[in-house]
Specification:
Layout lengths: L1 E7 L5 E6 L5 H16 L9 E5 L2 E8 L2 E7 L3 H18 L3
Antiparallel strand pairs: 1-2, 1-5, 3-4, 4-5
Length: 97
């Protein structure tokens, strides 16, 4: 199950966020800060799709048109694999090279 979606620019500023579960404001800020730090520390040239775990969620992220697209999901194994396959196929169709 998707917990939230976050779109971040290269400077680390959140541009779009959509939460599907209620979190208090302080918790949101802490989660966003941790995710942004982790995403910006990765090398975007070699990343098609990457994932990592922070606290209770798995985060998938990809760099699309200079923006970091991050999704937090519940750590259920089958959902993770289906999600990665879907994002990879979408990116492959959008950017064929």
């Amino acid at each position: 199950m998707i917990k939230y979606i976050l779109l971040v620019n290269r400077q680390g500023q959140p541009r779009i966020s959509q939460y599907y579960e209620s979190f208090d404001k302080d918790e949101r800020l802490l989660m966003e800060r941790d995710v942004v730090k982790k995403c910006l520390s990765r090398d975007e040239k070699h990343v098609i799709i990457s994932y990592f775990k922070i606290t209770d969620f798995f985060y998938f992220f990809s760099v699309l048109v200079g923006k970091y697209f991050c999704i937090a999901i519940h750590p259920e194994r089958t959902l993770r694999y289906k999600f990665v396959d879907t994002i990879y196929d979408l990116r492959k169709k959008t950017y064929p090279h």
